[in-house]
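One-letter codes give the sequence; each number marks local geometry. A record appears below:


***
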Amino acid sequence: MMMTQERAFLKSQEQLQAIQTYVEEASSQGERIDQVERELFSQLLVLGRTLLEAFVAAQGEGDEGPTLKQEDRTLKRSEEVQARRYLSIFGELSIARFVYAEREKQQAVAPLDARLSLPAAEFSYVLEDWLQRLCVKESFHEGTSSLRAWLGLAPSERAAEQMNQRLAPYAERFHLRQAPPPADQEGELLVVTADGKGVPMRRPLEERVRTSSRRGKGEKANKKQMAYVGAVYSIDRYRRTADDVLNELQRRERRQDRPVPQHKRVWAEMTRVLEGESCSGRERLFIEMLWECHQRDPDRHKTLVCLMDGEAGLWSLQTEWLPRAVGILDIFHVLERLWLVAHCLHPEKSRAAEAYVSHHLRMLLDGKVGYVLGNFRRLLTTGQLRGSQRNTVQAVITYYENNRQHMRYDEYLAAGYPIGSGVAEGACRHLVKDRLEQTGMRWTVYGAQAMLDTRSLYLNEQWNEFLEYRIQTEQAALYDKIAA
């Protein structure tokens, strides 16, 4: 049973006096400031719990009389108050209140729960916020450990994971409800980019149960499933020459006058079962990017640019869902393959290899893809390449041929289009790799998607707005039908 508000206030005054006495004694004893800081925080948590109890006590026990009318039902009051656990940032509270139901053991209504706007789960919204801020950045173990070190309490790792999964459905709905950025804050171009990143998955139970302690030949410790990461942003045109690009790449410095992406939004989709049917993560991603583009440019006034690597499946979906986009093959993937060819002819890190790459990159930036392909094909006829080297050069030729329609870099530079998909590469690293590929991590599809949904909102700097939406939505579902 909780104490009355009067008793709670008296207790809080005693606790506050004890805190003041501690500060006086610490001053006279010359304690270090950090020790005083830690002790003060610990005692303030205790004081906060007492004051929170005082707040709850002032709301009464939710006694609305012997019966409570709710729509077409009449509910009867419980004979005794029933306790509900509430885990706040100050500690655990036991909230005693009357509940109402038609019959015993049926789903009950608690007017005090509505008056206090209690969450559906036993964890406070503040505790949920703090813990999930930690867990979308680091492992559930690290998140719960950090919170426990600060507050002296925290849900278990399993509870933190379940909490994240409860948030995920709200995250998806929140994403679809977002208003477009203000038009006067947008750049001239609208850019979409997509890439895939493998997520280590838990093996099915039947595969994890072994009769041998060793894996069989060719058997891997874990399987991966692709998470497809998409980003949409706007940016101003930035017209450059081939020399400008070469100078930037060689100096590895960003020019100060380069425009920056505006209102970048990043998210990820995995293939999963929804309503009994398997839904392609890649296709869902493109549908959502299409919707985002429509929201941000409904009249299609902006040039739409699609920047990706050479994955054929992604380009096929771009043709299907974003056919008006100017498709551009990421120049950094092109450059990686130039280095592969250069190292078939010259030692790594040699000036000769650098000169070879610079010469052919300039030709590509000038729109001379055919000349580059011709040079590579001649290498296959000279007899100077060994088996593996021939295979490497042939693979690069095939890659360039398959993506040639997206390699008109002279046109892209003259039009001021971006040609590097650093946003997608960074999104895959920050959204997926940095959180879902930490040492020893294994995921279910459901758990991985939940983390991707919530983490993307955090990285998009939408966390506060998302949590407010989540609270309001849950509160409406819980209490809108309760009679005042």
In short: The longest helix spans residues 5-29. The CA atoms of residues 75 and 101 lie 5 Å apart.
